[in-house]
Design brief:
The chain crosses the membrane at residues 29-51. The protein is an alpha+beta fold and 504 residues long. 29% of the residues lie in helices and 20% in strands.
């Protein structure tokens, strides 16, 4: 019966109108055909009794690409005599950024060889901010949140967070994990409130290579699977580039964005959880959700298995600006909009909170009405997006209100798994005028800290930042003040949720 339900779901909802005009779609069809043959083989073996019927079908997770490796040692790769470069701040009018490799500041292009792509190499980066810039930003308010550093190559994008260097004013340092052979430069953006961002690219290039011997090396041990407690960092890697280094080690569709880039964590491994498997994990489960329209659209997609009517291009040459999910409509008797998965018998009850700081506190009414709807197995909250997009709102008030909301929800749902989502990746808001990355980071920090204080699970979608997705001009005109509901990013975010939920 399970095979029949899954097969009917796939054929009727996901692939009934499959077009073969693009390479990714052709790869999808090949994978479907291969999976069907595998399912047929399993069915035949079951019929002849040759399989152990105690096989655990409670783990609906497919193997995918690996980020095998060993856990990185805690060697201080930023151990360096910073006094030798502190004068740069006085002599320059622009920020300075460069690599430090083996305790040596890179002042010209440098080439190094990686041992293998599993362990990679930890490399320190140094940032020097001139006095003139700090003075303009009111020195007491300047911090590492004003500094956004990325390592860039033709095939890799990764954020490198920085912290201040103790006892050295104007100096900041960070550590980046470099796994893949390519030519890397550093891009630094200095955000100054009320002023235009300052963007600088490093003067030198770091070239990483991989010997033929290194290509053949296998991992010493596997990294753990990503879960709710993982402090994840990662990088965006070109799918074609990754496949050239590790052919046949990932599913052809795994974590693809625009059928081009994949997100690879540093500290743990991720496995593809398909839309059908997501619904199997939610089978006969009830979700209560509190949040904005963005959250509703995400969960509606999950509940419908991302069927084509949820989000599809109407015309091949017309860019997809947003998805076509229905807006939440509240019945007369409750404060919850409803969405159901008829095949897997899961239900979503959604209460809209567009602004947590509004005077009318509707969520308290909704909590009183939970007795009118089925009990929740999972509760999901997302109320941070509106706060970071509006700098006039008080972060202190947001912290107080968020703690109140989460504390009440924890008390109301003592037996439910409760997840709180951080603000959407900043790159989805870059088309909005006067948007501030500093404000985004402050809102994200408040959200994370309050979630940890109250003791709930974190659904941190902010880790997917770092790769720029520029909204088409036609879409900017339609969504000048709204977050970009980018389909592939939203689907990728669900992978983080289900990795957390599955590994509880």
């Amino acid at each position: 019966m399970l095979f029949k339900r899954v097969f009917n779901f796939i054929s009727s909802r996901q692939y009934a109108c499959l077009s073969l005009k693009s390479a990714p779609q052709r790869r999808s069809l090949v994978f479907i055909a291969f999976s069907s043959l595998c399912a047929l083989g399993i069915f035949i073996l079951l019929c002849f009794g040759s399989l152990d019927l105690d096989f655990d079908f409670s783990v609906p997770v497919l193997d995918s690409k690996n980020t095998e490796g060993i856990l990185h040692s805690k060697v201080d790769v930023c151990k360096f005599d910073y006094s030798s470069i502190k004068e740069i701040a006085r002599d320059r009018s622009k920020p300075y950024v460069s690599f430090i490799v083996d305790n040596e500041l890179i002042i010209k292009n440098k080439k190094i060889e990686l041992e293998n792509i599993f362990t990679g190499k930890q490399i320190c980066i140094i940032v020097v901010i001139p006095d003139s810039i700090i003075n303009k930003s009111k020195k007491d308010n300047f911090s590492n949140k004003n500094i956004y550093v990325r390592a860039l190559s033709n095939n890799v994008f990764r954020i490198i967070p920085v912290v201040s260097v103790p006892n050295y004013e104007n100096l900041y340092k960070g550590i980046g994990f470099f796994y893949y052979p390519d030519d890397y430069s550093l891009s630094i953006t200095i955000g100054l409130p009320g002023r235009k961002d300052i963007i600088i690219t490093s003067e030198n290039v770091l070239s990483l290579s991989l010997s033929d011997e290194a290509h053949l090396k296998e991992p010493n041990e596997l990294l753990p699977i990503c879960n709710a407690t993982s402090e994840i960092t990662g990088q965006w890697v070109s799918g074609y580039f990754y496949d050239s280094l590790r052919p046949l080690t990932r599913h052809s569709e795994f974590l693809d964005i625009d059928n081009d880039y994949i997100f690879i964590p540093d500290q743990c491994r991720m496995k593809l959880i398909t839309p059908v498997e997501q619904l199997l994990l939610l089978e006969k489960k009830t979700i209560h959700a509190y949040g904005d329209t963005f959250l509703w659209g995400s969960l509606y997609g999950i509940e419908t298995g991302y069927k084509q009517s949820w989000c599809e291009e109407k015309e091949p040459k017309v860019p997809l600006c947003s998805c076509n999910f229905p807006r939440p409509s509240l019945p007369r008797d409750t404060q919850f909009a409803i969405a159901n998965s008829s095949i897997f018998e899961s239900s979503l009850f959604f209460h809209p909170i567009n602004d947590l700081l509004e005077k009318k506190i509707s969520w308290k009414v909704a909590l009183k009405q939970t007795s009118r709807i089925p009990k929740a197995d999972i509760v999901i909250i997302s109320v941070s997006n509106n706060i970071f997009m509006d700098s006039s709102k008080s972060l202190r008030d947001f912290k107080t209100k968020l703690k109140g909301l989460l504390s009440n929800i924890k008390e109301k749902y003592p037996n439910s798994d409760i997840f709180v989502r951080t603000p959407e990746p900043f790159t989805l808001s870059q088309h909005i005028l006067d948007i501030s990355r500093i404000r985004y980071l402050q809102t994200r920090d408040v959200t994370i800290n309050v979630v940890k204080e109250v003791g709930l699970y974190l659904w941190d979608v902010g880790i997917l930042d770092g790769k720029d997705w520029f909204m088409p001009d036609q879409c900017v005109k339609k969504s000048k003040t709204q977050l970009w509901f980018k389909r592939d990013v939203v689907k990728l975010e669900s992978q983080l949720l289900f990795h957390s939920y599955y590994n509880l």
